[in-house]
Amino acid sequence: MHPFHHAKSRPDHPAYTMAGSGEVVTFRQLDERSNQIAHALREAGCQPGDTIALFAENSARYFEVCWAAQRSGLYFVCISSRLTTPEVQYIIEDSGAKLLIADAHKSAVAQDVKSVTKLDHYWSIDGDIPGFTSLETHQSKFPVTPIPDEMAGTDMLYSSGTTGRPKGIRPPLERGLPIDADNVLVQICRGLAGVTDQSIYLSPAPLYHAAPLRWSMSMTKLGASLIIMEKFDAEKYLQLVEKYKVTHSQLVPTMFVKMLKLPPEVREKYDVSSLQFAIHAAAPCPIPVKEQMIAWWGPIIDEYYAGSEGNGMTWARSADWLTHKGTVGKPVHGEVHICDEQGNEVPVGEEGQVYFGGTVPPTYHNDPEKSKGALHASHADWSSLGDVGKVDEDGFLYLTDRKAFMIISGGVNIYPQECENILITHPKVADCAVIGVPDEEFGEAVKAVVQPAPGQAPSEELAAELMAFCQANLSKIKCPKSIDFDPELPRHPTGKLYKRLIRDKYWGNSKSRIV
């Protein structure tokens, strides 16, 4: 399925509604506007297999751009609206984007990016940006009918690289693939989530993230009507469920925490009985939090484990989770293999690296070593996200550690080496480590442990100086919320940092953040 089918059968039905502004975009409007933008992209020289970048906050224009790229056979790179100029510049240049579309709310960064990049075109949405062409005005001169050479494009999202720089996940494009072809997630939405053209889907998260983007677009393919929150607010989420009789939603555990922290009288005054299905992933969910959510909403809360790489997926229904608490489920895409450091499969119940087999391994753009490193040494179709886990006698997977000490704060993946690479350049820093530490609301918070340079004494003033230094070079979410000092960080004579020893001071031996 595809929005153009629903534009023919139900042209005036809402494809999505913006929760804050109330703006409604019908299936006909979505189809016509995405067609116009597709024509504009072709005139701009974007051909199948090319890449465009979108740097925007949630808005009614977001999906018009994404569906235009999807029906034009393009890769569309959705860039976090929280990133700084150097970070946006890197992703644009690394991805090979030919064109940048930015929203007016990001005008300052967008103008800076334009001054340091050399793209073919710069377009603005949701208002004007000096030096950019207004896409809303530009697209109006193009026809609302499809371009003659439609083929399915796809997203190109960014994950971490071995150097700490994010790496693009660039799946192969099948030339000539129809724009309405099914994919694995569409099949899952239809089969496991029970999505129909009568479903109402509430998306509370930034659309530049993999899960909100992909779940929303899959829902639209199936004809569901979306409610898009510009920004998550716990009480507002419950209001929207009641107002629109929401049936389906995708969340992250920190949203559960915020809703559970509302006063009981606030939580109880909203009718959430319309909810038929809620799915969560992206971060470990504390067992007590999930128990409380199931008690509140009923056994409608499912969970999955997967990566942006799309190389496999496990799934846990509420009923299965209640009898296997802490599990992330059984495989629904690919099969799971648990292997030791030598690549041998381990017995049931033993921990090892988690591999998905029988699927297409990930391809990291401009990083063949990372692509190779994701593969099993003896099985070309086994690939890993680097996580450690175990499988029980019933075949349920449990994660027991996260890849490469990645920090997951509020469902957002934060790769500490980016921050470490900035901190180590400060003249008052001799060595540093960035880790995730327990945080009641977000699961983890970013902390830096710094070894001061000779002659520098630890102090609150130094900590403040270092945090300001980070924030001048990185988006705030990647920067430390706190800094501790250590006279000497534990390093092997070869130079390897024993980060686990540092982290264990804050976590102890508990792995409760994962299981």
From TrEMBL:
InterPro entries noted in UniProt: AMP-bd_C (IPR025110), AMP-bd_C_sf (IPR045851), AMP-binding_CS (IPR020845), AMP-dep_synth/lig_dom (IPR000873), ANL_N_sf (IPR042099)
Classification via PROSITE patterns: AMP_BINDING (PS00455)
Domain AMP-binding enzyme C-terminal: 418-496
Record GO terms (molecular function): CoA-ligase activity
All residue ranges annotated as the AMP-dependent synthetase/ligase domain in the record: 5-359
Protein name: Acyl-CoA synthetase
